[in-house]
Amino acid sequence: KAGVTQTPRYLIKTRGQQVTLSCSPISGHRSVSWYQQTPGQGLQFLFEYFSETQRNKGNFPGRFSGRQFSNSRSEMNVSTLELGDSALYLCASKGRLAGDIQYFGAGTRLSVL
Amino acid sequence: DAKTTQPPSMDCAEGRAANLPCNHSTISGNEYVYWYRQIHSQGPQYIIHGLKNNETNEMASLIITEDRKSSTLILPHATLRDTAVYYCIVRVANNYGQNFVFGPGTRLSVLP
C-alpha cells in the first residue's frame, strides 16, 4: 500500500507570493491533517479535513487555507507569504482503525525569500 | 499546549535497550497515548499506541502505568538508525475538536 505522498518536496517562493501544496493520502483514508514544523515552534496543527469538510483547525491566520477533494486528496494554500512561513509542511492521513493513528508524509519544505 | 512532558534528550549505547519516559498526568480515561519518532527532516513515523494495557509490536514496547499517568517506550536493542526525536502524544481538545499536539519530544542519541 502506498504511503502518504506530498508534492512538491521542495519549494522556494518570495514574500508576497502564494503557494499551493498537495497531499495524497493512503488509499481508503478519508481524513487528512496538515501541520507546520519550524525550529522555533516545533510541530503545529493547521487543520483537518474529512469528506471534503474542514472539521478541525489550529491557531493560524486566515492566509492558511485548505481543501479536500472527493478522492480525499488535499491541498493547502498559503497566500501573501511571509518570511516566517518558511517551514516543513507535513500532511498526515488517518483511516478508521481504533486509536486514530495518523500516518505522515515526507513533507514539503517551503523557503520564503 | 502539549499534555505530555518528556526529557529533552537521552543517550543510549548501541545494542542496549532504550527506555524513553513520558508523563501524561492529565490524561482522561478513554484517551490513547501515541508514540512517534522523527528522523531529521523526515515526516514523523508512527511507532506504537496504547490505552491501558502494555503493548508490543515489531518496533517497540509500550509500558503504561496502572494509573495511566505515565508511560515508557522501550526500544529493546537500539541501533544507530534509532537516533531520532521521539514524541509522546495525547490528543488535545480545542474549540473545534481534538488534534495531536506535539511537544518538543526527546532527542535520543544512540552511540556506537
What's this entry about, in short?
The complex is a heterodimer of chains A (113) and B (112). By secondary structure, chain A is mainly beta. Helix content of chain A is 0%, strand content 54%.
General description of the model:
- The complex is a heterodimer of chains A (113) and B (112).
- Chain A has 113 residues and is mostly beta strands.
- In chain A, 0% of the residues lie in helices and 54% in strands.
- Chain A has no helices and eleven strands.
- Chain A has strands at 5-7, 10-13, 19-24, 31-38, 42-50, 53-57, 64-68, 74-78, 87-94, 102-104, 108-112.
- In chain A, the strands form two sheets. In chain A, strands 2, 4, 5, 6, 9, 10 and 11 form a seven-stranded mixed beta sheet that branches. Chain A has a four-stranded antiparallel beta sheet with strand order 1-3-8-7, with no helix packed on it.
- In chain A, a hairpin with a 3-residue loop joins strand 4 (31-38) and strand 5 (42-50).
- Chain A is globular and about 40 Å long.
- Chain A starts with a strand and ends with a strand.
- With 112 residues, chain B is mostly beta strands.
- Chain B is built from no helices and eleven strands.
- Chain B has strands at residues 9-13, 18-23, 33-38, 45-50, 55-56, 61-64, 70-75, 84-89, 91-93, 98-100, 106-111.
- In chain B, the strands form three sheets. A five-stranded mixed beta sheet of chain B has the order 1-11-8-3-4, with no helix packed on it. Chain B has a four-stranded antiparallel beta sheet with strand order 2-7-6-5, with no helix packed on it.
- Chain B is globular.
- Chain B starts with 8 loop residues before the first strand and ends with a strand.
- In chain B, 36% of the residues are buried.
- Classes of the chains: A mainly beta (113), B mainly beta (112).
